[in-house]
Every structure is written in structure tokens, then in C-alpha cells.
């Protein structure tokens, strides 16, 4: 499957239906149908037509009610199913057949209960395929459209959680979503919450795609237990990126425990956490680890879009707190702004001698009791031309003092500056000041570490955006793995040469005499000799490699030896010969480049320094194919390998340009044969001094289907 | 300075004085003196004698008042100074001279304001030295003894923050301390808070030492901007460790910003963050990064002392939340318990089919509305014999549901089990359930990540405790750095041999003929030749090293060449000759061992894998001297080097026992000459296959004072 042919339904009539039928409507206030009806009427501002279905009623609360969906005169946009599990399939069929566009199914008792439930879900998908109706659910709390004040949900919480806002939330399970929604109490506004439960049809990717186009949504938040369809997910994420809407995501399943628990919860496959994180990072998806982090980052993005160049000021009335916050800013690799002279002057004028006028600003607690001082100093700090964000860590609830500080912050933010003022309410004790910050729209965070982490991610997103290649699309070839075969080193190298990837020019000798001849061709230098056989993967381990061959005699002896070792390891007929290559002169850096097909996202390239660096330190960078010159260069700079390549401690600089060129060519080659290439690894890849290029010293290809010679 | 001769005053009469004089007492409710008086009388339960001094009063609120400390008939235990800065020195002198044991100085305007203030602080120290009176402060909020209900402070917050408890808090700045104290609102009880401000005399170490002995304190919390006196701090920390009282610490100054801000705030020197963290970890001090982390870890330790073997259960009513929490448990390297069959049986009996009976437990939201079910399932989970701690992440405030859950939790904890039940109240919305958890003593944490991190640190402390070597004391030789000199490789190696550290047995040749002779002594193998000169530190860079010398002729040629390169780099008289050593046969692992004197804590040993691992990945472990066999072995296992040493991917195992032995001998050697050795580095140290020992291939020593030959 490739990214051609991915499309998304327009979900406008699901999110903002003109007409709704509630199947299973009830007058009982504690029933699912009754609560949903109340949410749709008393607690929504729905202007469209609301139809009710219940076989046992002709009217409910004065509204007409029909016995079956089939009794409706016209197909409404949306059906909401609040019916028993055993009635769901028939109702869905009726809805689909009469031309209803969308169905929300609250009912649980399907895929999450086991094999039988999964069979029913397959029937649901069949209804989607045959009627074109799209299904949201089952086993879900419904859909909350706060911005339209429309609660397509049975949850009694809808009555409380209706504060509108610019954040769209797309979740799988409902608990984490609701946890995010309750951040409304911190002033965080959510405009739309889609929580699709078992996702038999519509899934998180669809909601993200919709939110990317929705004019009332500016930031997208998602919680994932697994990515069901990698190419669709990537397409939705890129759509959001092109629309300039950041996605903040939490993905469960990074550890074995989490993967197991997530799978048992929503039956989603967790996939590889490393690959997942690499893909998120490449697509500009801001990955976080916890719900409070999700809230912090989203709330910041709802206030401002970052450029990636932000510099911070820290403003506090406690010296220790200022030091703590500055310390964390530094540890996170962020920059404290250097105040302009007029900022320092303004602070100096407002503050006594023992306060700190530079960044971090410590106005001291004594000073803060004067509201004019806090206003003037906050204003000066926020207005500083080098400052893009003001962090205000507040260690304690101090009654009137913190309330006055809150007043000043809100006033400065509303009247004086667009520079975000971000309070951190560190204490477990809250009070008037905290309340005022929330009411003033400042969405206080809960710990200095949280705030700094949020700002760091905010700025990183800005940097990503600045270098985002808008036209890039992932290869996304996720064909099922069939039986694969390995190609010998010599044949793989021949393919690489064709693809424009340099290798040492070697010859496969089939006798000692041919080895001697091949050695002569090498010229004056030394040679390397290696067994050639697709059946032998660890050549060194079986004695199939000799380095530093310096004479024809040595080449002939090495041939005998290597061949003899080879026939001990596999059948003689599987040995193609012995590869004789010139031995590359020092210095060079040994890197590793691997491309493999990830089952969720398609081909991913991995780059790193060879030897113990990869083995012991897992110091690698990853990118989805295709690579571009810019992304290939980034991959290199993201690893410690870059330290060596650019010339470490008096060593020469190595040929990074050639490395970039080679990575792109390799990516193009794999892209051309994506359906057939499972894995291709060059290890080691020698990166030679500047101007001397690179050389694939060893390589192995794993492929599907026909022999590469026929490609 | 060594750890001999470190002693701590008994602070009992500071913390629990029998008699107090308040100098600067006032009837004005808003003055420092007035607020302090009110705190001592109306808001304290002080049974001792309270005397007042104010030159302008004869009585205040009906209490007699004298004009000067000198007018007191007897010296009270404690003087509290609420006087102007210009009166502090005279008052302190009067107090000291009349035999008062302790003085608390609130007044600010000293060291924190600059040079003049520091001069006055020197006078204060002089008073301490000449009178024996100990000073707490200046520039501090005073001392809060909640357990005795005694507020030796001017802070109006004392009236609110008096909830007693088992946690002792020792801080430098007051803001972060107060932030911690307000965690009382989460049910965290603090029994004593010492916040010594500028610390002219008494310092954090003194309060830690006191708390280690105080029967009402079980956990010690500290915030540090700098460690003023390393040996004293270590002695206090070890005293607490021997008393079984954990210390949880936050240390500002890990980044340049933080170090600068901390220094400008309390004039404390930050020191090296890496060394600091290594020392904390070795002493069992639990280092955290933020105030909320401090609260979480301390609150957990206040409930239970860990063994290091704890296994966790996760209990939730949201599947996604259970998955998220399990994921974090896994990522932190913690263990989910495997439930005993009877636990699973009990859960199965109480729950419907679609819930999760194994760990993590997902009781589902529907179930939770039944209080008997939540009680029964929580009880079964907490009573599970393999479970040592139950984490209950609560994603949302759900009104009655969460209130009922809280009831069940509190009831199970109080009536049924000692296994800590740790709730995580994830939502920004709080309510009845949250309140009930606090009132029930469960001290809810605020985010899953926070809770898992706290549990991780809790368990790590348990592991540390299990292996704590009670009799160990640090070398703590922090003599001031004088001029240092370097010793040549050959001389350093001779010293190492004396110390029992093997080196290749080399000979220093002083002519080509001697080099040939030396080569013959090497035997059949190859030789290494290196320039010998204390003036040349980078031998390779100047062409002073030749490897793989295989004949006498080559040895003579190499001598000429190396010597010629040497005289280009330094004066010929500085060249001692050329070292001829046998070249060590492969395989061996190249490690690096360095010992250097840290100015705060004394000699620290650093161990790691050589080459790029140290250079690029900073993968090292550190220990204060002296090393013991156990700590030396730990150092090795803490680095990735251990992966190679124990036999990586078919490689042989290397001689770890010999490495341990060598590290201890090196430590003993440095310990013996601690005052003279500034730095000693062995790089590389070859660790040979099991049974073949280790060999210092290169080494350099930097020393003070006389030549080591005279030691």
C-alpha cells in the first residue's frame, strides 16, 4: 500500500449535522438514551432537526417518536445509536440502507470483549463498505462539539465541560480524553472532542484530518494506544502540518507493560516505540509522555505559534525559585534573553538595590506587595525586545501578594504585550491569585519542570516548522512481509554501484590464481578478502575475512584458507567465491546505514556511528523514506557521529557532502524498488576525508520475490 | 582538611529552647518584631521563658521589656534578633558575651548586598569564634518547629502552616522551602523547617545532622544552591544514612544559568553538577529536579521505608489510564507484580467479564459506581502477596464516583493493609474525592509521570540502603590547590607498580643501542616505544609514539625518530629517554581510570570505556575515595563498558576481578598520598581476558609539593 489513494471523508455533517436521529431515545433520565436526549436538547444549542426512534414510544417529552429508522421520511445526516448490543447491527444496516451519512455507536460489548465481538465489528465494516455510511465507535462516549455547543454524547459531564476553545482533541479511549478536557478548569478551551472507542471505521486519523481543516480549531491533541493505519495517520498529520496546525500526541506502548495493556484495552498494536517516535518527530508531531504535559504544550500553542527562536525571561519574587527556573532553562538548552539597556534601566528604577535587574529578574518578596512595582517590572520584562516569553514561577500562595501579582500579570498581558506571560503555580495551595490567572486566560502550569519542558517542545516545534519540507510525502510502502531472501555482499555491492553508491572496486575470485590476479589489480595497496555467499551472514565469525593482504602469495594463501573455512560453514555450492577488494587507507569514520520496512509506517532509514556506538549506546537517527538532502544532513547532525565527521580533536574533517549525497541516492534506489526491498544495511560505511567520498565496505540486502538481477 | 575533626553542635536548644529573648520586640502588629512576638505567644505553645528587649519600652502587651540584652539577669538559650541591620553586630556581641547559646538573625542587608555586607558577616563569624554562640541567619525567615508548635519566625504564614509531621526541611533560600511547606495542603506533614538564609555560621549540614538525631523526624528534605563545606555536608549526610533517615535533595546550579543565578542569590558556589550528583548518589541522597518531585518522594518515604525490591500494582477505572501508567512503570524499569491466583480469583468474582483482572487492573468506570466493588477489588489488589505498592491513577474528577473510590481507598488503607495505596489525581479539576484522599492521609500526587518517578527513586533508595557500607567514610581531602607539576609516564608507571597496579614492564632507553637491547628483553613479541618527558603531554601529537616495533633495527630507527621529534617539541634536557615496552596482544578492553581532587568533596575516581565512549558519550561512573571492593565493582557495572567486559557478542569475558582489585589498590595509593596527589589518570587501562589481569598502558600524575621519589 502506498500513500497514493489515501482519502478522507468530509466529516462536517458528523461534527455539525443538520439533522440527527437518536435511536433508543428515552424519557428515563438515567438511561443512556435519556441522558443523550437531554444533552441534545436541554444542554445543546442544536438548531437542526432532531428525530427520535424507539419501538415502544410515539412521543418523548412532547417530541414525536417513530418505531424504526425505516419509518423516517428522510435520511438525516447523523444517527446516534443508544441501543442494546444485539440490536446494533440491524439498526446500522437500516441506517446505512436509507442513506444516513454517519452513525455514532455508544454501545459497548464488541471487539473489547473478545473473538465474537470482533466478528460483529467485521459486520459493521461490511455495512460501511456496502452502504457508504461511516461509523463512529462503537464502545465510545460520543462526540463533543463545544464550539457549536452540541453534545452528541450520553455523558453527564457534557453539562459541565462545555467551555469552547481552539483545541481539538482526538482520542481512542475516553478516560485520558476526559482528563484533558477537565483542564478547562485551568482555562484551557477545547472546541471539539472526538473519542472513537473501538474505531471499527472512522479513526483518530480521520478526526485529525477534519480538525486540520476546521476553522475553529488551531491546535490538535491526540492520545493513541496504537496507530492502526500508518499511511493514513501520516497523511492526516502532514495535512495538519501543511495547514499550520500543530499536533500534540501521547502514545502509550513504549514499554512491554504499556504495549500489553494498550493491546488488551483497545486491541491496537503498539508498534516499535523508537520508530513511532522518529516518525512523530519527522512529521512535526509533538510527542509528550503524560497528560499534564499534553495540557501544558497545547495550552501554550493555543496562545501563540512559535518561531523556534524564542528567548525567555524568568521573573520571580523568590531568588531561589528564579535560580531553579533558570537552571532548568539552561539544562533544557533554552536561552535566557539578554535584556536591552532600557529594560534594565526600567527595572532598576522600579526596584531597590538588592533586587536582580538582569535576567532572571528577582523582584524580591518585599517589593511585590506594591502593585505598581509588580506592574511596572512585569511590563518592562515582557516589553523587552529580546524577550519572547516570560516565565513567572510562583513558589507559594501568598494571599494578597500573589493576588496582586496575578492582577499585574493579567493587566500587562491584556493591555501591554503580546509576549506570552506564562505563570507556574508551584504550590499545592491555590487561592485568589491562582483563580485570577485562570480567569485572565494565563493558564498557569503546575511545576517549573513542566513549564520548561512545555516551552522547550513549543520552541522545537517552531524550529521544525521553519524547516518543514511542505511537498515531501512518505514512501509509506507497508506491503505485507512475504518470505524474504538475502543477497550476497558482492551482488549487493554491484547493485549499490548501479544506484550510485560507491564501493571499493572488488573482484570475486574463484580460485587462488584468480585471487592473485585480483590482488594485482588492486595496485600498490593492501587488499581485503572475504567469502562470498548468501548463506553466510557473519563472515568474520566463520573465518571468512582476511585483512591487510600485501602480496600475491598472501592472496593465494588467504583464498585457500577462506574457502576452506567457508565449506565448513555451508554447502560448497553456496559459495560464490572470495571477494578481493582494495583495503581503504586510514583515516575514515565507520558509519552504519540501514533501511528497513517498518510494518506500520514503511521504509525507515537508520544512521549512526559504527562499532560500540550503535551497539552499546543506541546512538542513531531515523527518517522515513524518501530522504531529501536536507533531511539526510539532519540525520547526520543528530548523532554523535557528527562530532567525529566534522573533525574531532585535530582530526581532519570528513566528507559529509558525499555522505549526504549517498544517503539520498540510497533512498532513491530503495524507493524505486520499495515493494521488493525488505532491508538493506551498509555496515560499515567508510566516510573518508573531505573530497574523498564514501565507500560501502560491507552490505547486505534482504528482498522479496524475484532475484534483484531481474529488477 | 580531612573528615577527622568534623563535629556538630547539639542544636536541641536552638530548635527547642527553654528560654528565648526577642530583641526588637514590638507591639506594632505589622513590624517584624510585632509579628514575631505574636507568633511566639498567640500562635505557639511555648512553655519556656520569653524575655523581651526594646530600648524604647518597659513592657509590651503586659510583658516586661528591658532596654538591652545586657540587662537580662540570666542568659536564655536563644536570642531572636528583629533589629535593624546597623544594630545587629553590637546585639550579637552582647548576646555572645553574656553566654547565649544561639542567635537567630532575621535581618537582611548583609552578604547578599555586596562587599560591605560580606565584611559584616566576617565580623559575625568572629563573634561565633570568640564567644561560642552559634548564629542562624542572617537574612532568613527564622525557624519553624511545627512538632513543638513553636514558631521562631516573623512570617505571618506560620499561623496557617503548622501541621506537624515526620518530615524535616533544611533550606537555604526561603521561597522554595515555603513552597514545600504548602504541600501540607496535600496532607504532607512537616515537623521542622530550618531556613538559614546567608548561613554565616550554622548551615544546612548542621540542620541535617540535627534532624538525623531528632526522634520526631523521619525524612529529611533539603534545597541547596551550593554546598559550602563538602566534608561537613558529607559527614552530616552519612550520619543521617546511619540513622536510617533518607535525605531528599534538590540542588540548583546544574546549568550555567542556574549556577550564576544561585551565586547571585546566596553567594554559594555551585560546584560541578556531575560531581555533585555522583556524591549525592554515593551517599544515598535522593536527588530530584523540581519542588513537586521533592514533595512526591518525601511524602512516599514518610509513609514507608523501601526495601529496594518493591513490585507495583496499577489499579484504575480507565483502561487508557491503566495502560499509560503501566507504560511508565515499564519505562522506568520498575516491576508490575504478578498477582497470586487468589487475587485474580477475588477480582474475577467482583468484576464483570470485560474488566481486566490481572495487573494492571482496569475495573472500568461502570463498575466503580458500586462502592462495594471498589472496596473489594482495591482490597484484593492491595492484599496481593506479590504487591508492595498500589498506584491508583485517577484521570478525572467524577463527582460521586471518585468520592466513593476515595472512601474505598482510605478504608482499605486504614483497615486492611500496610501496602501503600498511592493515588494520582491527574485532573486539573479537584473535588470531594480529592479532598477525601488528602484527609485520609493518602497524599495524592499530581501526574502519573511524577508518581512513577517518585516510586522509582523510592525503590532506588531502598536498593542503596541494602548495600550501604556503614563504616565507610570519605577521604574528603580538599586542601587548596597549590602549584602542581606533572610526572613523566615512566615515573608514574614506576609509582603504579609500587602501588600494586600492573604496567607493561618497560625500560627507558637513552640511546639507539639501549633501545635495541630493550627490544631484545621484550622477547618474541612486538614492542611499543614512547618519548619520556614530563614536558610533553600529548605524545602522539608530536610523533612521540611508535607501535608494532618488530625488530632491533626498527627499534633503533624508532629511537632516532622519536628523539628527533621530541627535541622539536621541548628542550633536549627535558627528555628522559624513550620507553620501550612489550606491546600487549589483543584482545583487551581499553578503559580509562582517573582520580582527581574535587575542591568541594575531595578525591573522586572516574571510570569508563576509553576512546569515543568517554569523549562522545560521557559514559562514566564516579565514586568518592576510598573505593571498596563493592563500590569499585559497582562503578564498573554502572557504565556500558561492563557490557564489553562481561563478554559481548561472543567475545571472551575480561578480567573484572583484576580490575576491581586494581581500582581498590589505586584508591589506597592515592589515599596514602592524598595531600600531594592532584590528579592521576590511566588512559588507556587494558583489561585483559579473564585470568590475565590488567595493565596501565599510559598514565600521568599531577602532584603538589615535593617530587614523588621522596614520598
Automatic annotation (TrEMBL), chains A, B:
Keyword match Repeat: no
UniProt enzyme class: ligase
The entry's keywords: ATP-binding, Ligase, Nucleotide-binding
SMART domains assigned: CoA_binding (SM00881)
Every CoA-binding domain range: 14-110
GO molecular function, one term: trans-feruloyl-CoA synthase activity
Name of a matching Pfam family: ATP-grasp_5
Gene3D superfamilies: ATP-grasp fold, A domain (3.30.1490.20), ATP-grasp fold, B domain (3.30.470.20), NAD(P)-binding Rossmann-like Domain (3.40.50.720), Succinyl-CoA synthetase domains (3.40.50.261)
Keyword Cell wall biogenesis/degradation: no
Domain of life, per lineage: Bacteria
Known EC number: 6.2.1.34
Protein's UniProt name: Trans-feruloyl-CoA synthase FCS1
Amino acid at each position: 500500500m502506498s500513500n497514493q489513494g489515501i482519502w478522507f471523508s468530509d466529516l462536517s455533517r458528523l461534527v455539525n449535522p443538520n439533522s440527527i436521529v437518536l435511536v433508543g431515545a428515552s424519557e428515563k433520565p438515567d438511561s443512556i438514551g435519556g441522558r443523550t436526549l437531554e444533552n441534545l436538547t436541554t444542554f445543546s444549542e442544536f438548531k437542526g432537526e432532531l428525530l427520535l426512534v424507539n419501538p415502544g414510544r410515539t412521543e418523548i417529552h412532547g417530541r414525536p417518536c417513530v418505531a424504526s429508522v425505516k419509518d423516517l421520511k428522510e435520511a438525516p445526516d447523523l444517527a446516534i445509536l443508544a441501543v442494546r448490543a444485539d440490536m446494533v447491527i440491524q439498526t446500522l444496516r437500516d441506517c446505512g440502507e436509507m442513506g444516513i451519512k454517519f452513525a455514532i455507536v455508544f454501545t459497548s460489548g464488541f471487539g473489547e470483549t473478545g473473538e465474537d465481538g470482533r466478528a460483529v465489528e467485521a459486520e459493521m465494516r461490511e455495512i460501511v463498505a456496502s452502504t457508504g455510511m461511516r461509523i463512529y465507535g462503537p464502545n465510545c462516549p460520543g462526540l463533543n462539539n463545544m464550539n457549536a455547543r452540541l453534545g452528541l454524547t450520553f455523558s453527564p459531564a457534557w453539562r459541565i465541560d462545555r467551555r469552547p476553545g481552539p483545541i481539538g482533541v482526538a482520542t481512542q479511549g475516553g478516560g485520558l480524553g476526559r482528563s484533558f478536557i477537565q483542564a478547562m478548569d485551568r482555562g484551557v478551551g477545547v472546541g471539539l472532542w472526538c473519542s472513537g472507542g473501538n474505531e471499527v471505521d472512522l479513526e483518530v486519523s480521520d478526526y485529525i484530518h477534519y480538525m486540520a481543516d476546521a476553522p475553529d480549531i488551531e491546535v490538535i491533541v491526540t492520545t493513541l494506544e496504537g496507530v492502526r493505519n500508518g499511511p493514513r495517520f501520516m497523511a492526516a498529520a502532514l495535512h495538519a502540518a501543511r495547514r499550520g496546525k500543530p499536533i500534540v500526541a501521547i502514545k502509550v506502548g513504549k514499554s512491554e507493560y504499556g504495549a500489553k495493556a494498550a493491546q488488551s484495552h483497545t486491541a491496537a498494536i503498539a508498534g516499535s516505540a523508537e520508530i513511532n517516535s522518529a516518525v512523530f518527530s519527522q512529521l512535526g508531531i509533538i510527542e509528550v509522555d503524560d497528560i499534564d504535559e499534553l495540557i501544558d504544550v497545547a495550552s501554550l500553542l493555543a496562545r501563540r505559534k512559535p518561531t523556534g527562536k524564542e528567548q525567555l525571561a524568568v521573573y520571580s519574587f523568590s531568588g531561589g525559585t528564579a535560580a531553579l527556573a533558570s537552571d532548568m532553562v539552561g539544562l533544557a538548552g533554552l536561552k535566557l534573553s539578554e535584556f536591552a539597556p532600557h529594560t534594565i534601566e526600567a527595572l532598576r528604577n522600579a526596584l531597590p538595590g538588592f533586587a536582580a535587574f538582569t535576567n532572571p529578574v528577582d523582584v524580591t518578596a518585599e517589593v511585590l506587595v506594591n502593585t505598581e512595582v509588580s506592574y511596572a517590572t512585569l511590563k518592562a520584562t515582557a516589553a523587552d525586545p529580546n524577550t519572547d516569553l516570560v516565565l513567572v514561577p510562583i513558589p507559594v500562595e501568598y494571599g494578597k501578594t500573589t493576588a496582586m501579582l496575578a492582577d499585574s500579570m493579567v493587566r500587562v498581558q491584556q493591555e501591554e504585550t503580546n509576549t506570552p506571560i506564562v505563570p507556574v503555580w508551584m504550590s499545592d495551595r491555590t487561592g485568589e491569585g491562582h483563580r485570577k490567572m485562570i480567569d485572565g486566560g494565563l493558564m498557569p502550569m503546575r511545576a517549573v519542570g513542566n513549564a520548561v519542558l512545555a516551552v522547550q517542545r513549543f520552541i522545537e516545534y517552531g524550529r521544525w516548522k521553519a524547516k518543514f519540507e511542505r511537498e515531501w510525502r512518505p514512501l509509506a510502502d507497508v506491503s505485507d512481509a512475504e518470505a524474504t531472501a538475502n543477497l550476497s555482499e558482492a551482488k549487493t555491492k554491484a547493485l549499490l554501484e548501479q544506484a550510485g553508491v560507491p564501493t571499493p572496486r572488488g573482484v570475486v575470485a574463484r580460485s587462488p590464481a584468480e585471487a592473485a590476479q585480483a590482488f594485482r589489480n588492486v595496485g600498490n595497496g593492501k587488499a581485503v578478502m572475504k567469502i562470498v555467499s548468501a548463506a553466510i551472514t557473519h563472515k568474520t565469525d566463520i573465518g571468512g575475512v582476511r585483512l591487510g593482504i600485501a602480496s600475491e602469495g598472501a592472496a593465494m594463501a588467504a583464498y585457500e584458507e577462506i574457502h576452506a573455512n567457508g565449506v565448513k560453514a555451508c554447502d560448497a555450492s553456496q559459495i560464490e567465491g572470495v571477494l578481493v577488494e582494495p583495503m581503504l587507507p586510514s583515516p575514515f569514520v565507520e558509519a552504519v546505514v540501514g533501511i528497513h520496512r517498518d510494518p506500520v509506517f514503511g521504509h525507515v532509514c537508520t544512521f549512526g556511528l559504527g562499532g560500540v556506538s550503535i551497539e552499546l549506546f543506541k546512538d542513531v537517527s531515523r527518517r522515513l523514506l524518501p530522504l531529501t538532502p536536507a533531511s539526510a544532513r539532519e540525520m547526520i547532525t543528530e548523532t554523535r557521529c557528527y562530532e567525529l565527521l566534522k573533525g574531532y580533536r585535530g582530526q581532519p574533517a570528513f566528507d559529509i557532502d558525499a555522505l549526504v549525497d549517498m544517503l539520498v541516492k540510497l533512498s532513491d534506489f530503495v524507493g524505486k524498488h520499495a515493494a521488493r526491498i525488505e532491508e538493506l544495511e551498509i555496515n560499515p560505511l567508510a566516510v573518508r576525508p573531505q573530497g574523498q567520498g564514501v565507500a560501502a565496505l560491507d552490505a547486505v540486502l534482504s528482498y522479496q520475490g524475484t532475484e534483484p538481477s531481474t529488477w
